[in-house]
Amino acid sequence: MTKDEVRNRLLFYQDLGVKTIYRRSPATSNQKPETSQQSPAPSPQLPATPQPRSAAAELVVLPLAPVHDNLSKISEDIGDCKRCRLHEGRNRIVFGSGNAQARLVFVGEGPGADEDEQGLPFVGRAGQLLTQMIEGTAHKEGIPLKRQDVYICNVVKCRPPENRTPQPDEMEICGQFLFRQLQAIRPKAICALGSTAAKAILGTKEGVMRLRGRWLEWRDIPVIVTYHPSYLLRPYNQNAKKEAWDDLKKVLHYVYD
Ligand code: URA
What we know:
Elements: H1 3-15, E1 21-23, H2 55-58, E2 59-61, H3 71-78, E3 97-98, E4 104-108, H4 113-118, H5 125-140, E5 151-154, H6 168-185, E6 189-193, H7 195-202, H8 208-211, E7 216-218, E8 221-226, H9 229-233, H10 238-256
Helix pairs in contact: 3-6, 5-10
Bound molecules: uracil.
């Protein structure tokens, strides 16, 4: 196995919440390795989703992956998180909010000042626009949907200083909790808001402009990428609004028709 393959495989188990992986010792090499019961089928389209087809061959994984994972357990596991530097400047961890059985999940980048103060995602200006986008578009399309019917969370759960973009290691560490949230909810579709969310979920380096408007996938769950509401708030980006509304229409009809 190449170094990259090993790394990808370890990331896959990390996504599942596995904290310890033991290399098989020669003495136990004939035993059937224990693997997680919960391994979701990785999507073949996504290059960044590790594909542990023959994981059993080299690694023994203790059953630390949560078997019946749920949002409370994930929140408990996050605890008073100090796993990365973002904890230093936060007031509150912003875990996520909404319907734990939502058919649609929106994923943003990370909390801003308002979110950090209230402990809830998307409650500032961008959040108000997101609520309008969700409820306004649904209403226009004849779909009875309120913000509380969907689930909303972020890639990183602590506010980055000065609202800077989360760094790769921060995204990697906090991303394992995002993946667990998505896996626990297993919505009918995911809407990634902006390129940080797209990058975390799809493992792509492509920007929103190239990704939006088409169906992608995270572990067999359809993903739509659209503009982050903060981007749409800037006066010079008004053209993007129509595209964002189109993306939203598409995902809402897919999920709720
Ligand atoms: N921007 C985000 O990405 N997330 C929030 O929760 C608020 C603003």
